[in-house]
Write a structure and sequence with these properties.
Number of helices: 10
Order of helices and strands: HHEEHHEHEHHEEHHH
CATH superfamily: Uracil-DNA glycosylase-like domain
Number of domains: 1
CATH class: Alpha Beta
Low-confidence stretches: none
Radius of gyration: 15 Å
Mean pLDDT: 94
Shape: globular
Largest sheet: 6 strands, mixed
Distance between the termini: 23 Å
Strand content: 15-25%
């Protein structure tokens, strides 16, 4: 494990707690869910916010969406331990509601810090909530699966927007689209080498 990176990520978590980011969310959540996985990962996945199970366990993507994500990783020849997974919002919104624009904006700088620390080759956004900050004004239905270089502050990131696994679980027609987009990721990664 990369101790230096872990220390820096722990500092971000401490900073979020000390600055009382999104106090209403913090009050209603069980805990802060920062992320999980390989701190030297080539790929970082970004979802929207923790769900009920994630809030209880303190890990992102461990419910039904996480099982689907794990299955897609396996089909692409990867394991969860090879990647890093986080969310734009680090506390569970009550009743699993969508995170608000203000909540996403409050956590955005911390997400950028995480990306700077992990320094992945590829960022994969899962769903429109994490996609919209990288691709303002775009619709996921129009740009899913299309990688783009994005300059955010000082960081140039190679970002691939994908549908959220939960959307594919609830909408069967999106399932194959997400799987097809996902299976392109190893090839795209190899092209970056």
């Amino acid at each position: 494990m990369n101790i230096v990176k872990q220390d820096r990520l722990d500092e971000i978590a401490t900073d979020i707690r000390q600055k009382n980011v999104c106090p209403d969310l913090a009050k209603s959540a069980t805990q802060l869910v920062m992320g999980d996985g390989n701190l030297d990962a080539e790929i970082v996945f970004i979802g929207e916010a923790p769900g009920k199970k994630e809030d209880l366990e303190g890990l992102p993507f461990i419910g039904a969406s996480g099982k689907f994500l794990n299955g897609m990783l396996a089909s692409a020849g990867m394991e969860r331990k090879d990647v890093y997974i986080t969310n734009i919002v680090k506390y569970r919104p009550p009743n699993n509601r969508d995170p608000s624009a203000a909540e996403k904006a409050a956590f955005w700088p911390y997400l950028l810090e995480q990306l700077e620390i992990i320094h992945p080759k590829v960022v994969i956004t899962l769903g429109r909530h994490s996609m919209e900050y990288f691709f303002p004004g775009q619709k996921i239905g129009e740009i899913h699966g299309q990688p783009k270089d994005v300059l955010i502050g000082e960081q140039e990131l190679y970002v691939i927007p994908l549908f959220h696994p939960a959307a594919a679980l609830y909408n069967g027609s999106l399932r194959q689209t997400l799987v097809d987009d996902f299976l392109k990721v190893p090839t795209l990664l190899n092209e970056l080498d």
